[in-house]
Please model this.
Amino acid sequence: MHTTNHPTPELRQLAKLIDGQRIAMLTTLSTEGDLESRPMTVVDFDSDGRVWLFCEHDPQDATARERHRRLNLAFSNERSSTFISLPGRGQIVHDRERIHELWSPTLKPWFPDGPDSPRLALLKVTLERAEYWDAPDNRVVRGLALAVSIAAGKPMGLGEHGVLSTAHAAGTSR
Model:
């Protein structure tokens, strides 16, 4: 995933939390109002705090734009015990210059027609906030913290949970 320098402490912390996590579960609403989730590759987390993903989109399909208006991205890294939920607003973007800028040959299996396909688009996600759970990444430490928590009858040393405000980062460029 391509990341850039982030101007605020909240965005720097979020960039650190998602660093190395390329796959997110994207949840949107179907036309019937049901939740639909699918794994997606994140290709950029820009300096304005927006997440960029490639998607296939027929420019004539207005329902896809509506389905992506409100969405959630979820990251889960069991190895580091980091879990992140990113609710936001999606916008389908057919910017050929930006598509070429973010294109990678590793995307070819999912998008065989390449970056010039008229059906290839970007999903730009403007985050509303970021909620995260970050526990110690050492299994022994987590096990000890769980044992202490059970003995104490309350969570102790199990990690950090927080909500980061990303509202100030809703830039409008691109």
Remarks:
- Residues 7 and 56 are 31 Å apart (CA to CA).
- The domain at 2-168 is CATH 2.30.110.10 (Pnp Oxidase; Chain A).
- Confidence is low (pLDDT under 50) at residues 138-151, 154-158, 168-174.
- Strands lie at 2-3, 23-29, 35-45, 50-56, 70-77, 82-93, 120-127, 129-134, 160-165.
